[in-house]
Amino acid sequence: MNRVKELFEIKYPIIQGGMLWCSGWELVSAVSNAGGLGLIGSASMYPDILDEHIIKCKKATDKPFGVNIALIYPQIDDHIEIIIKHKVKIVFSSAGNPAKYTSIFKEHGIKVVHVVPNLRFALKAVNAGVDAIVVEGFEAGGHNGIDEMTTMSLIPLVKKEINIPIIAAGGIASGDSILAAFALGAEGVQIGSLFAASKESSAHINFKNEIIKAKENDTILTLKELAPVRLLKNSFYQKIFDAYQNRVSTEDLKTLLGRARAKKGMFEGDLIEGELEIGQVSAQINKIKTVNEIMEELTEGFKRVKNNLNNFDF
Amino acid sequence: MNRVKELFEIKYPIIQGGMLWCSGWELVSAVSNAGGLGLIGSASMYPDILDEHIIKCKKATDKPFGVNIALIYPQIDDHIEIIIKHKVKIVFSSAGNPAKYTSIFKEHGIKVVHVVPNLRFALKAVNAGVDAIVVEGFEAGGHNGIDEMTTMSLIPLVKKEINIPIIAAGGIASGDSILAAFALGAEGVQIGSLFAASKESSAHINFKNEIIKAKENDTILTLKELAPVRLLKNSFYQKIFDAYQNRVSTEDLKTLLGRARAKKGMFEGDLIEGELEIGQVSAQINKIKTVNEIMEELTEGFKRVKNNLNNFDF
């Protein structure tokens, strides 16, 4: 039995993270059609764009898919209305307190999963009544907690205290790491970076090429005072670094960050001035692949390493 | 087949990290007697003390044990002479370049393992001719690399590029995490924090009590300009934090660190002024146990989670 598969009625307990600027209907429907769970990344969409992506996604797949919402999004109520209107069955919420919104979704029969970076928030999410949690380690790309607990240290800690299904995120880009996450206590995985660099991702090709070029230590978790984010150390990051060296105020950091940096980098392909959000596993990604290729490698890799472990002499 | 077990002629591929102020002959011989590999932590020992611990360790166990040496240790040549004199068969080296010393050990038939925090240094260690490497993630306690690659992100990356056995370190404190490390490509694990808090550890009881009280996010990797180290956020750390806030120079940081901080905290039990080096897994450690209890929990836990995975519906 696998509770993540049962909860979402999917073939493989592999969830594609709802990443801003990467996770439009093409990516989402491809993942769902391949047996995983695709999530539309609504945080980079105006309400009418989200509406459009849900409609297109429904046309492209008859399999379950979901929407990731950032609870701090300014037009969150519009997003929620659209999700309910279209009878989307699964919502992953992040970046905010799930206490207020979880009950609204549950009233409409929507499955709710909340993303947490530590045990403290995991317990809060359980109290809010979510169906499962994504536990995301320090190595994950994009917006993350201010804590630095890694996937390896965090999952067993959370597993000991809660009973609802755990979906591991951060550091996962292969069948090997899926099995590792399961050994730690997860029943599913959420994968971001690998899908951000997929053919079906709506990210700009320049950004995808940067992901496959990235080596170890090319990403960093920064901007902890504003909204902690793991990104590639490009020219824009160098400006952040210099700002820290010069001890600029949080206000000045905000000005430097400005608006639409992530769009500029990830969607428009400006590698100099844009913000390029990605995880540490980018060092393991060396080719742009289709979602089908990725899903096959993940599932075959999982089976292979599981068989190897059985032959292992401990 | 397990190459780590074969290399060291041990029953379980579990290595007790050679931690300063914790890893004297009592801990080392207890781990080796329980079927793992104990390592004397020589970095906190004057040559005559190391000599004494090796002699006592040999009396306390007829099983293989080793010595961890810090290659930047001022009297490293004396340490090496003592290791060779006593015909110690296994050396783990860290904190320095293995190129110079590996061949000296190999000439004396000593097995050499080097500790690395990234792929770059892993490749250098392979070139130096070591028999295996410890790959240590960001979550590990004590002295660590300046990189922030976590165990989950790093092991598969290294595994793809090298063929000698990999011993995973950082984030490992249970059978679950041992199996996770194996899934990622390791053939053995090095465990620190859990043994630092064991009954046989030579750490001060005050320090052990702090370890079992520690929660998530109570440790941090700091002092990157001097020698990066993960430690508990106690009063001494608060001074480091304040120093960073006040942008003191690296020289001033050195003065603040002073000498013998680790001894003061870990060996003398000064929780205010001392440096308390420990990993993120301290959040999972809630009791002081004997080495035998720890080894049994690890090996039984490993078998249990391995069986669970076999029943797992992917």
What tags apply to this protein structure?
homodimer, 314 residues, alpha/beta, TIM Barrel, 3-stranded antiparallel β-sheet, 14 helices, 15% strand
Explain what the structure shows.
The structure is a homodimer of 314-residue chains. With 314 residues, chain A is α/β, with parallel strands linked by helices. Chain A folds into 2 domains: 3-202 and 287-310, TIM Barrel (Alpha-Beta Barrel); 213-281, no CATH class. Chain A is 43% helix and 15% strand. Chain A is built from 14 helices and 11 strands. Chain A has helices at residues 3-8, 25-33, 47-60, 76-85, 99-107, 119-128, 151-159, 175-184, 193-196, 205-213, 235-245, 250-257, 261-267, 291-310; strands at residues 14-16, 38-41, 65-70, 90-94, 111-116, 132-136, 142-143, 166-169, 188-191, 219-222, 229-232. Chain A has an 8-stranded parallel beta sheet. In chain A, strand 5 (111-116), helix 6 and strand 6 (132-136) form a beta-alpha-beta unit. In chain A, helix 8 packs across helix 14 (291-310). The two termini of chain A are 26 Å apart. The mean pLDDT of chain A is 96. Chains A and B meet through helix 7, helix 8 and helix 14 of A and helix 7, helix 8 and helix 14 of B.
